[in-house]
Amino acid sequence: MNYRHAFHAGNFADLVKHAALLDLLSQMPRPLTVIDTHAGRGLYDLSGDEAQRSGEARAGVGQLMKAQDLPAALQPLRAAVSQLNGGGPARLYPGSPLLIAGALRKGDSYLACELRPEEHAALTQALTPWPAARTVCADGYAEAAARLPRDGQALVLIDPPFEKSDDYRRCVEALGAVAAANPLAVTLVWLPLKDLETFDSFVRDAEDAGVGPLLIAEARMRPLTDPMKMNGCALVVARAPDGMGETLQSICDWTVGALGQGGAARIWTAT
Fold first, then answer.
1. CA geometry: angle at 1 spanning 110 and 261, to 5°?
2. pLDDT tens string 140-196
3. Helices 117-126, 96-103: inter-axial angle, 10-degree rounding
């Protein structure tokens, strides 16, 4: 999978991931350490050639911004996009780094990891206004557990592009390393949904790694009949806060219902 996020910024998967991320950031006790393993550029121009060519932002955040029936769980994301664009049309979209940085409170810290030098340079520029946010041009899988404090509240976001064959394995390894390093840490993993066997295999491996309990949210935008397409996305949350299942259900129900094509939302737990 050759993945450049500029083509996909603001799509349905970003809406699911970022709405859930903002909910987690609002709930977790402080002070909080946040580590983002695959941060990307941090800020995306939806008027650029990539976004215009794919049309995914128009079908995603474009619909979010004009929805009349938006549930409470998605309203913080809409507010963040609106603020970034000065209340005007959504020409810019915030990646996870800007959303995290904007949610930091006194005493919090944020480390954004990005391996590609050109993306890291843009990320560093985007995070300049937030002194509590730092960046590193390094392998986020390795950095997550190495830089994680051994106690205290922590949130780790694992959101790889899934362009390498070992991304699923390395996600499971990172989940295990984070859990071993800090048993209080909450980990949010984003995954594409292409075929059910690949996803079920990931969940089985995560269960075998002993990182549970796992709260799992699936936004199936269409039936999983063509494994060559991204038919939806999933979130896997290790040690999720109480009540997060209801929030994820609301996010996925709206996204699938408003933007999907005969799909379904599914929220479940694994140990």
1. 90
2. 999 999 999 999 999 999 999 998 889 999 999 999 999 999 999 999 999 999 998
3. 30
Instruction: Take residue 45 and report the two structure tokens written for it.
Output: 């121009």
Three-state DSSP string of 95-129:
CHHHHHHHHCCCCCEEEEECCCHHHHHHHHHHCCC
Q: CA quadruple 30, 218, 229, 55: dihedral positive or negative?
A: negative
Strand pairing of 109-113 and 133-136? parallel
Question: Which has the closest alpha carbon to 5: 62, 66, 50, 61?
Answer: 50
CA within 13 Å, CB half, 150: 0
- b/e 126-151 (16+ beta carbons within 10 angstroms → b): bbeeeeebebbebebbebbbebbeee
φ, ψ of residue 260 in degrees (nearest 5): -85, 180
Closest CA to 34 of 182, 172, 177, 144: 144
C-alpha atoms less than 13 angstroms from C-alpha of 8 in its C-beta half-sphere: 15
At position 151, the amino acid (one-letter code) is: D
Distance CA 73, CA 95 (A): 18
